[in-house]
Design brief:
single chain, 4 helices, (rape) hypothetical protein, extended
């Protein structure tokens, strides 16, 4: 299996800017369904991991991801017309 080459990161690990992020396809219902299936101890454990950020997105609705993507896409310079890369956590 060939390894996928990811683009270089804009920020070094641990040096990312703090602030709100956009997730265009975020569906809180899916996360809520998963949390409902877990025991309270398991939910607490998940909140302490990297997935805690995803759980917090379900609890705190953000602004329109479509609007954020529109703003970002207008300033991107990429080689392919429909290419855009996102990195989470």
């Amino acid at each position: 299996m060939e390894l996928t080459q990811l683009p270089e990161r804009m920020f070094a690990a641990g040096e990312e800017p703090v602030g709100e992020r956009v997730n265009t396809y975020h569906k809180p219902k899916r996360i809520e369904s998963i949390l409902d299936a877990l025991e309270p101890e398991e939910v607490d454990f998940m909140r302490k991991t990297t997935f805690g950020k995803i759980i917090s997105q379900a609890e705190n609705p953000s602004f329109s991801g479509s609007f954020g993507q529109f703003v970002i896409v207008r300033i991107l310079r990429v080689k392919k017309k429909y290419e855009i890369w996102f990195l989470f956590a």
